[in-house]
Design a protein that fits this description.
mainly alpha
């Protein structure tokens, strides 16, 4: 493994798989340490920024893809079917309608604004489902430009952070249950959801996290759907990617109740480590100048998508009787 200052060596092949794994895990460890001392900064966001900043001159694509898929599989252990059903039928319907409205609405907005197809897909996925982890999961089947992926992560971080202050401010007159559901439905990252719901109390935070993780369940059908349409224009990968099937299986395993808390806690940490490692590897492929080319159009798309998901969440909660 070579760490060199010259950008021209960026595409050098890795010396060994073990060394490339060591590089991305080191990046993940640093990101986790920063997140520990500054909790408002998501470990995944820090990891991708570190990857952009650190001059790693090796091909990390294979190990990055493997870590990503393993992380998405383990993500399924964070949610059980009983937690979903405990929300009530109205809330589950609100989740489905909000996610679909935000996803397809953002794709439409991206087209109207003239934003690239790849960036539009990344923003639609991250803003409607679960932030950075959804973006990198979608990239594994859509194979968009890495600059679009990095720009999507940057935008979801920016607007999710703004939502931490806006959601409790706008929802100050609501009850804690409604605010928790609204935060879970409209804020992008899990850590941001917790921060946004915190002013309403611990009960609101608990509701917000379950609603948020219910949104995560929709990652599977949406990624599988995009993967299916990708088959029409290129190679023929499985209709349902193996890691998406694994994600669903892990939800079922969690739902059986056979796993002790210590295993679930370990899986949660493992998920964060794997996804942070994948984000670091992703960051090393990014050319910052190209990310900045998304410019004003990308910022406008992020703002409109945030407003769309917030309004859709608010409206569907009221109309479904989940408020």
């Amino acid at each position: 493994m070579t760490w060199l200052p010259a950008a021209g060596y960026r595409d050098r092949p890795p010396t060994t798989t073990l060394l490339t794994m060591w590089v991305v895990l080191t990046g993940a460890a640093v990101a986790l340490a920063i997140n520990y001392f500054v909790p408002v900064l998501s470990a995944l966001t820090v990891a991708v920024l570190l990857g952009v900043a650190v001059p790693v001159h090796a091909d990390l694509k294979q190990v990055t893809r493997r870590f990503l898929r393993a992380g998405v599989v383990l993500l399924g252990l964070q949610l059980s079917l009983s937690e979903v059903t405990s929300l009530g039928f109205g809330t589950v319907i609100a989740v489905v309608v909000t996610v679909l409205t935000a996803f397809f609405g953002t794709l439409g907005l991206a087209r109207l604004l003239g934003v690239s197809r790849g960036l539009g897909l990344m923003v639609a996925t991250g803003f409607s489902i679960c932030g950075a982890s959804a973006i990198v999961a979608m990239d594994s089947v859509a194979r968009t430009d890495k600059e679009d992926v990095a720009a999507g992560v940057t935008l979801v971080t920016l607007y999710g952070t703004l939502a931490i202050g806006l959601v409790p401010l706008i929802g100050s007159g609501m009850g804690s249950e409604f605010l928790g559901k609204w935060a879970g439905l409209s804020v992008h990252e899990v850590a941001q959801v917790v921060a946004a719901a915190s002013p309403a109390g611990a009960a609101a935070v608990g509701i917000a996290v379950v609603v948020k993780l219910t949104r995560v369940v929709l990652l599977a059908p949406i990624v599988a759907g995009v993967g299916f349409f990708q088959r029409q224009d290129g190679p023929k990968p499985p209709v349902v990617p193996l890691f998406v099937a694994g994600f669903l299986v892990m939800i079922l395993v969690r739902s059986t109740g056979i796993l002790p808390p210590v295993v679930l806690d370990g899986a949660k940490l493992g998920t964060t480590v794997l996804l942070a490692a994948a984000m670091f590897g992703l960051g090393t492929t990014v050319r910052l100048r190209q990310v900045l080319r998304s410019g004003r159009k990308g910022l406008v798309l992020g703002a409109l998508s945030t407003a769309l998901v917030g309004a859709a969440a608010f409206g569907t909660l009221l109309l479904s009787g989940a408020a």
